[in-house]
Amino acid sequence: KNEVEQSPQNLTAQEGEFITINCSYSVGISALHWLQQHPGGGIVSLFMLSSGKKKHGRLIATINIQEKHSSLHITASHPRDSAVYICAVRSGANSKLTFGKGITLSVRP
Amino acid sequence: DAGVIQSPRHEVTEMGQEVTLRCKPISGHNSLFWYRQTMMRGLELLIYFNNNVPIDDSGMPEDRFSAKMPNASFSTLKIQPSEPRDSAVYFCASSPTRESEAFFGQGTRLTVV
Fold it and tell me: Per the omega criterion (within 30 degrees of 0), is the bond before A8 cis?
């Protein structure tokens, strides 16, 4: 079993829809990251959180430490949100990052 | 700041050749990371440096891979000899501290034929 599991694997949505992407992990962590990778390949850090909730524009990230689960929500989705969304957890003495496989989101106009 | 700069953006080389990937981190960042991304395995940490010192190289696949950080503004990842299974996108990232958010370079797409 991978330490970081993301679901669903692929997701297609219609423009304007509310989207939720999930991430579950099996180890104790000090922080969780959400990353976005566009078709061109560049990776951008969206959020880093260790508790509660963070909001940036139309994006909201939540984490439940007890349940070892995080969600990334996109409100009023837009085709430009189409990308791969990767969850990563930081754990261990060396604060090593372990990545999920990523979820491919496609938002249709 | 121009962000993390990687070179080259693309590299095609023949099996057995030496390959050197380069990275310039964001000025003032103390941590630098090398990652590899493949379709099969996703993103994997290869090695990271803190204050130019290698802290964790457990992700380096084998002795053919080596990484150096001679100063705070430059790092290299070398593969010698290269093999087709090394084909991947290699990302360099830096962060102010090793617990901070990381800023990624655009990556180097390596193809070994």
Answer: yes
CB B33 within 8 A of CB B104: no
A24 HSE (CA, 13 A, CB side): 8
Residue A80 to residue A78: CA distance in whole angstroms = 5
Residue B73 gets the label, from left (phi > 0), alpha (psi -120 to 50) or beta, of alpha
| A30 chain-B contacts, CB cut-off 8 A | 99
Instruction: Say whether A45 and B101 touch across the interface (CB within 8 A).
Output: yes
Other CB atoms within 10 A of residue A25 CB: 22
Give the chain B residue whose CA is nearest to the CA of A42: B106
Taking residue A47's Cβ as centre, other Cβ atoms within 10 Å add up to: 22
Closest chain A residue to B100, measured at CA: A48
Low-confidence ranges of chain A (pLDDT < 50): none
List the B5-7 sheet strands across, edge first: B5-7, B19-24, B74-79, B65-71
Q: Each residue of B30-72: pLDDT tens digit?
A: 999 999 999 888 899 999 999 999 988 888 988 999 999 999 9
Give A51-77 pLDDT, tens digit per residue.
999 999 999 999 999 999 999 999 999
